[in-house]
Each structure stands twice: as C-alpha cells, then as structure tokens.
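Hello forum,

I keep getting stuck at the same step: I have a sequence, I want structure tokens, and every attempt I make locally crashes halfway through. Rather than fight my setup again tonight, could one of you with a working pipeline run this one for me? It's a single chain of 267 residues.
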Amino acid sequence: MTESRVITTIDGPVAHVRLNRPDKLNAVDLPLLDGLLSSAAEIAGNRDVRVVLLSGEGKSFCAGLDFPSVNKTPRKVVANFIPNPLRGTNRFQQSLWAWRRLPVPVIAITRGHVFGAGIQLALSADFRFTTPDAKWSILEAKWGLVPDMSGTIPLVEQIPLDLAKRLTMTGEIFSGEQAAEWGLATGSDVDPDKLARELADQLIERSPDSVSASKTLLNEAARRGLRAQLRLERRLQLTMFRSPNTKIARSAGTKGEKPEFGPRTFG
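Reply #2:
Ran it on my machine without issues. Output:
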C-alpha cells in the first residue's frame, strides 16, 4: 500500500500538514496534488481548526515538480491541465489555490529546497517562515517554462514587480535569509518551527471568525475595485457583528478575561 503523499493531523485547533516524499525532497507528483486537495478539503470542513502549519518531511520543504514521475502519465497530465469551467482553475492550480482560499490562516515552514512548485506552494500560505540557509528559486526558467499553479498571483502581491520579473525570468537561486529581506518570507530563523508556533498561538487567541474574515478581506483587496472592496468590507463587518464569537470576544475583553471561543462560524 502506498503511503500517503500528504499527512494531515489535527491537534486541537492546529492542523499539521506535511508533504511526505522525503526521499524525493517532497517533489510534486500527481498523487501529491491529490493529497493537497484532499487535505485542504478536510481542513475546510473542520470548524474547530484555527490555524494550519504546512511543512515537509525530511530535509526539504519541496524541490518542485517531479518531471520524471509526471511525464510517465502524459494523459493524466493533460486531464489535470484542463480547467474546471466552474472554478476557472485546473487541478495543478487548484491544489495550491485551495490553501489560499482556506478559511483559516496557513503558515508554511520551509527548509532545504523551496524550488518551483515548492515556492508556489509556500506563497499560497498566508505566512512563510524559513531557515536562513534554505534555497529558494522560481526554477521554471531553467526548463524554459513559466511559473504556474496559481503562484504568480501571490508573488506580485508580496514583492515589487521588477523583482518578481527578475526572479521569474532568471530562475536564480537565493537564500531563505534573502527571501525574508525581500518580503517573500515572513521571517528567517534557524528554528522556523518556533516562529510558526509563536504566530499560531497569537492567531488562536483571536476570534476564529474575525481571523477568517480578515483573510478573505485582505486577499480580495488587490483584485477588487474601490467600491467593490468597500462593499465587501461593510458586509464582512456586519457579519462579524452577528457572530457569536464576537460576543465572546467583547465579553472577555470587558471583563479582562481570556476568551473561550466556539467553533468558526464564518467561511
């Protein structure tokens, strides 16, 4: 029996998601795409999950697409490349876009290789912590390709356009420390797990509804016009006013107590 390409474990309010091809540096093959989609769907349906920690087993986060494996099944590649007319994404894109659309914050923890599909998966998270010596690259240029899997959208949101073009066109390899300096990574440390846990603890202290709504509001800001974004802002605020978790936050804040939130009701 083939071991799962993506391992998901739920520990109270925290979902731990780990890419599980350490012998291949967690390179992406078609079963791993399926695992990412299944894991995202499982987490989206669990209203007790408050934050996701996304990492890779072994020495590397993800070394990119496993071309030798994927090329063995060209018909499946073609089928996965055809977009779903309702979603507007193909399976390659949706396997990463699902994490951006997840109604809870996702924190990627990277080390080793963060190449190609790996950097795009990291960018689909809301936050990225990395080791200083990790190797990052938008590696598609090496193979005469362009980045895909929906990664170009968060890329140009994170860094200036000229830098995004430079990294995309050259495929140059840069360190995790440099990724943090450029704003691609949220932070760099020899123990990125520690930084991720600290942020996760902060997020868990807040209403799961306001955290989820804030993710939606800010993700939409870059793509909407002014009026549409202001409408969304008003709508989400009205939704928060009605949220039972908002009442809990207000009551606890007034009394100076630690809030005990219920399950997420938004998203």
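The chain has a mean pLDDT of 96. If your local run keeps crashing, start a new thread with the error log.
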